[in-house]
Specification:
The chain has a twelve-stranded mixed β-sheet, with no helix packed on it. Strands 17-19-21-23-24 form a five-stranded parallel β-sheet, with no helix packed on it. The chain contains five helices and 24 strands. Helix content is 14%, strand content 23%. It comes from Stylosanthes scabra.
Length: 372
């Protein structure tokens, strides 16, 4: 009888220890509850990515989730509607999801990554509590949905944020003043929204930023001078906005800047020589503005443009002869200006077609009509 009693005691102790260990190694019930509320606000009918969001431990087998190995708090939600994951490959579908982002997400205070991108149908506003509650957040990517409303005014509180992507949505606010407090931000994508107002005058405080993608919005005003302090900026895209003013000369002095797109704005003035002679510049699009004056004759052996588009402006004078000495010129478009004179011969002109020079005042020579 004593032996039987000992066996039951041992069994009970084993079960107790197992339960205690399971409780310690599972995600906290509060995280699980927040995730289920997050899921309940969304509808994903095709892929079934939420089908395995069952059981007590959200750290085990829940699609798109990762947890801290020590605290077992949820650290990453990574759900992309366009993915190479085998779920997408097997069904040969891209993702489609509707619903909105539940404020319950803000209870996941250990979250460092929130990616809910390219689902096409998620709408509603960004919960304002994300900025005040998720202080560990490093990546916030909500690209490719139908999210509307404002960028949270306190977004600058997310001091650890390195990636902030809201491109291809329906955001209609101005850029919050606090955005410039994101000192560690490296990638900013606000493209293809309805964002209005000026760029913050102190936008250059984002010293770590390497990509600023702000195209296809309703931004106004001029390019702030503080941009010149952004020594790591490689890609600046302000195309298809309502930017006015001239191109700041200092843009041509930025050594890392390799892609500059200002097309489709209302800018004016002359094109700075330093911008065209900058050997690091590889893609420059200034088309569909009001730039005037001659094209600076400053090209040389270090010039390497994958694309140079100066079309649909008011440029005058001749095509610079120094273009013939460029190391490489992939795409060149000088059409729809007021240029005159003979088109230079040799590279890169020998591989360009007439469309690159059409609708000017009096250009002649190959590939246009011969000069008389």
């Amino acid at each position: 009888m004593a032996s039987s009693s000992s066996s039951y005691s041992l069994l009970f102790l084993t079960l107790f220890i197992f339960s205690a260990i399971s409780a310690v190694t599972s995600c906290p019930p509060s995280d699980r509850a927040a995730l289920l509320a997050f899921k309940d606000a969304l509808t994903e009918p095709n892929l079934g990515i939420f089908h395995n969001w069952t059981g007590n431990d959200c750290c085990q087998g829940w699609y798109g989730l990762s947890c801290d190995p020590n605290t077992h708090r949820v650290t990453d939600i990574n759900l992309r509607g366009e993915s190479q994951d085998r779920i997408f490959q097997k069904l040969q579908l891209t993702g489609y999801m509707t619903g909105n982002i539940s404020p319950e997400i803000c209870k996941l205070t250990g979250l460092s990554t929130l990616v809910l991108a390219d689902w096409k149908g998620i709408s509603g506003e960004i919960p304002s509590c994300i900025a005040s509650s998720l202080s560990s957040l490093r990546i916030l990517d909500l690209t490719g949905n139908q999210i509307s409303g404002e960028i949270p005014a306190d977004i600058g509180k997310l001091r650890r944020l390195t990636v902030f992507s809201l491109g291809d949505n329906a955001i209609s606010s101005e850029i919050p003043k606090s955005l410039v407090n994101l000192a560690g931000l490296k990638h900013l994508d606000l493209s293809n929204n309805r964002i209005s107002g000026n760029l913050p005058w102190n936008f250059g405080n984002l010293r770590m930023l390497s990509r600023a993608l702000l195209s296809r919005n309703e931004l106004t005003g001029s390019i702030p001078k503080s941009v010149f302090k952004m020594n790591r900026l490689a890609d600046l895209d302000l195309s298809m906005n309502r930017i006015t003013g001239s191109i700041p000369v200092q843009l041509g002095k930025m050594k890392v800047l390799s892609t500059l797109k200002l097309d489709g704005n209302s800018m004016s003035g002359q094109i700075p020589s330093r911008l065209l002679s900058n050997s690091g510049m590889g893609i420059l699009n200034l088309s569909r503005n009001g730039f005037e004056g001659p094209i600076p004759d400053v090209f040389g052996a270090k010039t390497y443009f994958m694309a140079l588009d100066l079309s649909y402006n008011n440029l005058t004078g001749k095509i610079p002869g120094s273009l013939s000495s460029a190391r490489f010129m992939g795409h060149l478009d000088l059409s729809h200006n007021h240029l005159c004179g003979t088109i230079p011969v040799g590279s890169p002109f020998d591989h360009l077609d007439a469309a690159s020079f059409s609708d000017n005042d009096c250009l002649c020579g190959n590939p246009l009509k011969s000069c008389e």
